[in-house]
UniProtKB/TrEMBL annotation, chain A:
<dbReference type="GO" id="GO:0022857">
    <property type="term" value="F:transmembrane transporter activity"/>
</dbReference>
<keyword id="KW-1003">Cell membrane</keyword>
<protein>
    <submittedName>
        <fullName>Monosaccharide ABC transporter membrane protein, CUT2 family</fullName>
    </submittedName>
</protein>
<feature type="transmembrane region" description="Helical">
    <location>
        <begin position="162"/>
        <end position="180"/>
    </location>
</feature>
<feature type="transmembrane region" description="Helical">
    <location>
        <begin position="63"/>
        <end position="81"/>
    </location>
</feature>
<dbReference type="InterPro" id="IPR001851">
    <property type="entry name" value="ABC_transp_permease"/>
</dbReference>
<dbReference type="GO" id="GO:0005886">
    <property type="term" value="C:plasma membrane"/>
</dbReference>
<feature type="transmembrane region" description="Helical">
    <location>
        <begin position="211"/>
        <end position="233"/>
    </location>
</feature>
<keyword id="KW-0472">Membrane</keyword>
TrEMBL record, chain B:
<keyword id="KW-0472">Membrane</keyword>
<keyword id="KW-1003">Cell membrane</keyword>
<dbReference type="InterPro" id="IPR050107">
    <property type="entry name" value="ABC_carbohydrate_import_ATPase"/>
</dbReference>
<keyword id="KW-0762">Sugar transport</keyword>
<dbReference type="GO" id="GO:0005524">
    <property type="term" value="F:ATP binding"/>
</dbReference>
<dbReference type="InterPro" id="IPR003593">
    <property type="entry name" value="AAA+_ATPase"/>
</dbReference>
<dbReference type="InterPro" id="IPR003439">
    <property type="entry name" value="ABC_transporter-like_ATP-bd"/>
</dbReference>
<feature type="domain" description="ABC transporter">
    <location>
        <begin position="255"/>
        <end position="497"/>
    </location>
</feature>
<keyword id="KW-0677">Repeat</keyword>
Length: 321, 505
């Protein structure tokens, strides 16, 4: 185990221990039903967190994703209500819009040499506002195809449902893992997280890569928006406020270093599931306030930040020795 | 000739960084490039690697004219560079660093096994035992340097520029690196070696070119070149015969009149403990080569890197110098070498910059009134002849010489008793240069004591009453009275090296 993989193993260990604790108290939690629901309920978060992982690995941040998801829901709902387009066509349109939006933010970040924090903060307000422009109210989605999507599942042994959404999340994670860890693009992302200037000296086309990174995040946010619209069967411009922060938290709990350059997409999946597990536990318990989720997540985040700092210091000490 | 440079000129606003410099490099030689800070070494390298575009002159590589527009283009042409701060990514594996941008892929995915094999091939022949799957950052700087060299050689393969590669290596690691450099030389690479460690230059180089103030001073074969000659080239020797008449006759030569005493102050790894006594109105020069411990001496005296040993005291007893705040309280001032980053606050106005140190000493609870600030600013703009349209102009917009005057004004406003000037005239025009030297004379006449660090020996000879010579992080000699001449200073700087030459012979 190296200092590189340690946070990942720590994440997995925490998840397993947490699951064990839950299981000892509520044996019913170790059932395929709970696992299936864990995947379905957190699908939208998992999908968007994959995009966020790539952004954070590159040393950036994308605050716009929560608003983009909300916009996506409204966009889909309004399009389905007002036009005769098939949902698949609408999805394709939406993904084109959100990807272009991400690419535009990436371009601004590079051309204006602005911090991603500021540019995507502007993007956050912009996307939220665009959602309001389409509709100020919640728009229900009543399309037969949506019923099909919602009810598409594989019945696991033990009556757990592995839904389309859950599968979509797992596929997103798998795709993200290949992209980040097995392609030249992924190496460029890590390189930029290690140091943009050095990356440039080593031949990374920094501008193009920045555009690609935020385009990918925009695409994943759009995909997450599709998942969320299937999950809720509606579009509401006020939905998903703060989801970007949950995604960032999942990435960090997943062992990715917030300053970029080190981490694993798979860890993000575990991060998302850990956050989902806490919520499930609270549901099972029944007496705890849901605010406990936030408190536990806060504590976990703090722990991981301390762990990363410690590893960093250890690394510098070893390099100096 | 592998690489030739003819009349290369590069100017920046206000300075001529390179003035018609010629340089050439043969295949299979190590050519050292020497010069003090600001001599133009880095500008020359940056013009070669495409980081800067030259104003005039010609570059030819293998006989064909080249004009690299970017470091990438230079790399592809065959010019690879390895910097002191390794420009690789510590968070990627050794294999990823070596093959970066050219990773073998299969079905669009990076083929890990082929990549590792390729990386191992690139590293073979360098005599290092490296697991290419590990993160680069887990290896020592020396190994990282060699990985960087391996990458540069594979990518470029004609010219290898080593920019201060040994600055953070210990002697064993330097030997390892030099083995690598020698074997590359045998393979026929042209290697440009930049270092301020003369021993290393003599050990590894075949030829040496010395730059000074943007001009090429000399190019010589290293065999048969005397250290003394080389140091003379680096420090410059033009004004040898300038007389020292009319200087500082009032200065107390009697040590008992010295009021400020430092005994055994030093800091491990920075500067060995030294003693220093300073008299009222005395100008002490600190001479030595780059990296010899000049600036470090000043930093210890001013509490920037607090002393670990020794004491400082004046007629009233001991003085604490644990940090610059205490040094300022004790009446010390310090105008640092790197004016842009350590000296001025570029976005603040001339007035604000001048009032800064005085305000810091008074504390924030007692602000200096605007009227008082204006008076201060006007006074010093007038007295030091700071060329600015008005006191509210941002200091960053002034020329180098005027920025330096603002820094001086800031300290003079506090009327320090002991004022340390680190390279006060670097990178400023001739007029301002003379004015600053005149100013030194003026304030010492009023009783202020000054420590001047300079690589311009003429300058030291012109202003200093005493010159202390620093070498290898030690104060090795003190020259007084008639000994303060460029000749004697150069000899003192070169002294032990000459000895070791004789021993070696």
């Amino acid at each position: 185990m190296t200092s590189r993989t340690l946070p990942l193993f720590a994440t997995i260990a925490i998840f397993l221990i947490a699951y064990l604790v839950c299981y000892l108290q509520f044996p019913a939690m170790l059932s395929t039903r709970v696992i299936g629901n864990l995947l379905t309920d957190n699908a939208y978060l998992g999908i968007v967190a994959v995009g966020m992982t790539v952004v954070i690995l590159s040393g950036g941040i994308d605050l716009s994703v929560g608003s983009v998801i909300a916009f996506s829901g409204v966009f889909i709902a309004v399009m389905l209500r007002d036009t005769g387009l098939h949902p698949l066509v609408v999805f394709a349109l939406l993904l084109a819009v959100t990807t272009a939006f991400g690419a535009f933010m990436g371009g601004l970040i590079h051309v204006l040499a602005m911090p991603p924090f500021i540019v995507t903060l502007a993007g956050m307000f912009l996307a939220r506002g665009a959602g309001y422009m389409l509709s100020v109210e919640s728009v229900p989605i009543q399309h037969p195809f949506y019923e099909v999507l919602k009810d598409a599942y594989y019945l696991m042994p033990g009556k757990g449902r592995l839904t389309l959404l859950g599968v979509a999340m797992l596929l997103s994670v798998a795709g993200g893992m290949i992209l980040a860890h097995r392609t030249r693009f992924g190496t460029r992302v890590f390189a930029m997280g290690g140091g943009a200037q050095t990356a440039q000296l080593m031949g990374v086309p920094v501008g193009l890569t920045t555009v690609q990174i935020y385009a990918f995040s925009g695409f994943m946010a759009g995909l997450s928006g599709v998942a969320f619209s299937i999950y809720t069967a509606s579009g509401y411009p006020l939905a998903m406020v703060g989801t970007e922060l949950n995604a960032i938290a999942a990435v960090v709990i997943g062992g990715t270093i917030l300053t970029g350059g080190a981490g694993y997409v798979f860890g993000t999946l575990i991060g998302v599931l850990t956050m989902g597990l806490i919520q499930t536990y609270i549901v099972f318990d029944g007496s705890l306030s849901s605010w406990w989720t936030k408190i536990v997540i806060g504590a976990l985040l703090l722990m991981f930040i301390l762990l990363q700092k410690g590893l960093l210091r250890l690394g510098t000490a070893r390099a100096a020795a | 000739m592998l690489l030739t440079i003819r009349s290369l000129t590069k100017t920046f606003p206000g300075t001529r960084a390179l003035d018609s410099v010629d340089f050439d490099l043969r295949a299979g030689e190590v050519h050292a490039l020497l010069g003090e800070n600001g001599a133009g070494k880095s500008t020359l390298i940056k013009c070669l690697t495409g980081a800067y575009q030259r104003d005039e002159g010609e570059l030819t590589l293998d006989g064909a004219p080249i004009s690299p527009q970017s470091t990438l283009e230079a790399q592809e042409l065959g010019i690879g560079t390895v910097y002191q701060e390794v420009n690789l990514l510590p968070n990627l594996t050794v294999a990823e660093n070596l093959t970066f941008g050219r990773q073998p892929t299969r079905f669009g995915m990076v083929d890990g096994r082929a990549m590792r094999r390729q990386a191992e091939e690139m590293l073979s022949g360098y005599g290092v035992d490296v697991d290419v799957r590990r993160d680069l950052g887990t290896y020592s700087v020396a190994i990282q340097q060699i990985v960087a060299i391996a990458r540069a050689v594979t990518l470029s393969g004609k010219v290898l520029i080593l920019d201060e590669p040994t600055a953070s290596l210990d002697s064993r690691e330097v030997a390892m690196l030099f083995d690598v450099v020698r074997s590359l030389r045998e393979q026929g690479l042209g290697i440009i070696f930049i270092s301020h460690f003369l021993d290393q230059v003599f050990e590894i180089s075949d030829r040496v070119t010395v730059l000074r103030n943007g001009c090429r001073v000399a190019t010589d074969d290293i065999a048969g070149l005397e250290r003394l000659r080389l140091i003379e080239h680096m420090l410059g020797h033009e004004l040898e015969d300038e007389t020292r008449e009319g200087r500082h006759a009032h200065v107390p030569s009697d040590p008992s009149e010295r009021t400020l005493h430092f005994e055994g102050v030093g800091r491990r790894g920075l500067i060995e403990p030294f003693d220093l006594s300073v008299g009222r109105g005395e100008v002490i020069g600190l001479a030595g080569l780059l990296g010899s411990g000049r600036t470090e001496s000043a930093e210890v005296l001013f509490g920037i890197k607090p002393t670990q040993t020794g004491t400082a005291r004046d007629e009233n007893g001991e003085i604490a110098l644990r940090n610059p705040r205490e040094a300022v309280a004790a009446g010390f001032g310090f105008a640092p070498e790197d004016r842009k980053t350590d000296g001025i606050v570029a976005d603040l106005s001339v007035r604000e910059n001048i009032a800064l140190a005085l305000q810091a000493r008074r504390g924030w609870a007692r602000p200096i009134s605007r009227a008082e600030q204006n008076r201060l600013a006007d006074h010093y703009i007038d007295r030091l002849d700071i060329r600015t349209s008005d006191a509210e102009k941002a200091v960053g917009d002034l020329s180098g010489g005027n920025q330096q005057k603002v820094v001086l004004a800031r300290w003079l406003a506090m009327n320090p008793r002991f004022f340390i000037l680190d390279e006060p005239t670097r990178g400023i025009d001739v007029g301002a240069h003379a004015e600053i030297l005149r100013l030194i004379e003026e304030v010492t006449a009023d009783g202020m004591s000054i420590l001047v660090i300079s690589s311009e020996l003429d300058e030291l000879v012109a202003v200093a009453d005493r010159v202390i010579v620093v070498r290898d992080r030690r104060h090795v000699a003190q020259l007084t009275g008639a000994e303060v001449e460029t000749d004697t200073i150069v000899r003192a700087i070169a002294a032990p090296d000459a000895d070791s030459d004789e021993e070696a012979a």
